[in-house]
Amino acid sequence: MKNKLISILFALLLLAGCGAGPPALPEAAESLAGMKLTERVELKYAERFTIDRYEGGFSLISVADGSRYLTVPEGTEPPEGLDKDIRVIQRPPNKIYLAATAVMCFFDAMDRCDAVRFSSLEPDGWYIDGAREAMERGDMVYAGKYREPDYELLLSEGCGLSIQSTMIGHSPQVREKLEELGITVFVDNSSYESHPLGRSEWVKVYGELLGESERAKELFEEQAAYLDGLTEPKGEKKTVVCFYISGAGKIVTRKSGDYISKMIGLAGGRNLLSEKGEDNAVATVTMEPEEFYTKARNADILIYNGAVSGEVDSLAALTAKNSLLADFKAVKNGDVWCTKKNFFQETLSLGAVIGDFGKIISGGGGELKYLFRLGDAR
């Protein structure tokens, strides 16, 4: 009963925070456990974390959910007098249990998949080459889903850090058990960033944990450059609809304030559907095919979300899912695209995704990494 009440309270807090604007994060403390502040890491888009560096190579990572983590240099003991709520992470962490799958791309980009020993996905669930190959070699092993981890395995190999998504809030007993076993739990909040590239900027958090802060900064700047290179389209913006068809035959599309809708806007398009849906943390809206037909048939561009329901390779395969689609403007014009399976595991590369959106919206052509036109050769 206690755990159920905690889950309900956590969900209510999430709902209360929706649309509330940027979260309040603490100002940098000039002194921490007797250590002097040397700098606060500059952030461009992220609003849900801060990184404060202190003398001696210590860093304090503060997250918008109120959590604080002190990274401690290798071979160094944590300072005395730390506030009791500050969790300690020894650098470099190894034998990590990674249950936040959207985070793996950061480790892969920094060539540090070696720091992750335990995965919450089986090998065939990964579309990130570094993770899948590490599991095939046995360097990374499956340790259960976030809600049912293999505690015995984690303990037997000395796991000291678990990186979780905010879904762990629905299984508070798991977090309690991990911490009871001496495994520090770090909760990734990147999915709650208001700007799409705020999600990508979380690479700086993991760079700080791994001692790869300069590399992380470079990787983020590469993504930010995609936005800098976009030009405002002339004339009326093209209308875009991103959707997929569920197993029950319903149409699932994105809310107007969702990060994918925001990426479409940054790329120079406009989400034709202004559906807001219920005021909750769910990013999608479900509708009947007939309603979708009425509202979306005149969209200039359709993007089918193959990362969720499976890729389709032709317009015929798409219209076979629902014959109403054959009468859509974008289908008749051949302006229908599909996301690849790696779409939702590439949090770092959202700048490149926006670049792909910009190419299809502008019609300027060019190689695409995360989308393909239906009917095009793969």
Secondary-structure topology with pairs:
Blueprint: H1 2-17, E1 31-32, E2 35-40, E3 49-54, E4 58-63, E5 68-72, E6 86-90, E7 96-98, H2 104-109, E8 116-119, H3 129-137, E9 141-142, H4 151-156, E10 161-164, H5 172-180, E11 184-187, H6 196-200, H7 203-210, H8 213-228, E12 239-245, E13 251-254, H9 259-266, E14 270-271, E15 284-287, H10 289-296, E16 301-304, H11 306-309, H12 315-321, H13 329-333, E17 336-339, H14 350-362, E18 371-373
Helix pairs in contact: 7-8, 8-14
Q: How helical, in percent, are the residues?
A: 25-40%
Q: Identify the overall geometry.
A: globular
Q: Please provide the count of β strands.
A: 18
CATH H-level superfamily of the largest domain: Nitrogenase molybdenum iron protein domain
Supply the CATH class of the largest domain.
Alpha Beta
Low-confidence stretches: 1-20
Summed up, the helix count is 14
- For the residues shown, what is the average pLDDT? 90
Distance from first to last alpha carbon: 52 Å
**What is the domain total for the residues?**
2
Q: What structural category do the secondary elements indicate?
A: alpha/beta
**Largest β-sheet summary:** 7 strands, mixed
CATH fold field value of the largest domain: Rossmann fold
